[in-house]
Each structure stands twice: as C-alpha cells, then as structure tokens.
Amino acid sequence: MGDDFDWSQIEKDAKVVNEARETVVYLNTENDVVIRQRKNWPDEQEDPFLVIPLYRVRALIDRLDVLLLDAHKPSDIE
Predict the structure, then answer these.
(1) What average pLDDT does range 9-32 have in this prediction?
(2) Where are the alpha helices (DSSP H) in 1-78?
(3) Which of 19, 22, 44, 70 could form a disulfide with 38 if both were Cys (CB 3.0 to 4.6 A apart)?
C-alpha cells in the first residue's frame, strides 16, 4: 500500500478503528445532561451538542439499549 492508497477501496472488515470526535457528557447549571462533541474545524463555528432534560435521560438510555441490542443481532442477510 503506497502513495496510491484509496480509503474507499478498503473492505469493511479491514477497518478496525473508525474516526470519532471527542465527546463529553456533563450536567449544566440547570441539571440537564449535555452531550457535547469537539467541533470539526474549519467546518463548524461551535461545538455541536445535545441538551437532554434530566427527567428524560432514562428514556434516552432505554432507547440506546434497544438500538445497541438490535445492532448486535445476527443479520439475516450475509
């Protein structure tokens, strides 16, 4: 693999680490959960973030659990 390396030609199973933004989770002054990612300079002017009211965090976690289980189910198409 020399200078003519083409990322679009890599097989899915060959990639072991995908790019990921730095992500932090914290409580703001209103006790909401904030999920914040580092901006992808120069495309963004500010860090993107989500603010989840504390009383809805359990619903978010439950939904994420469902998605995680679905993602790890054996595929019918292989």
Answers:
(1) 86
(2) 57-71
(3) 22
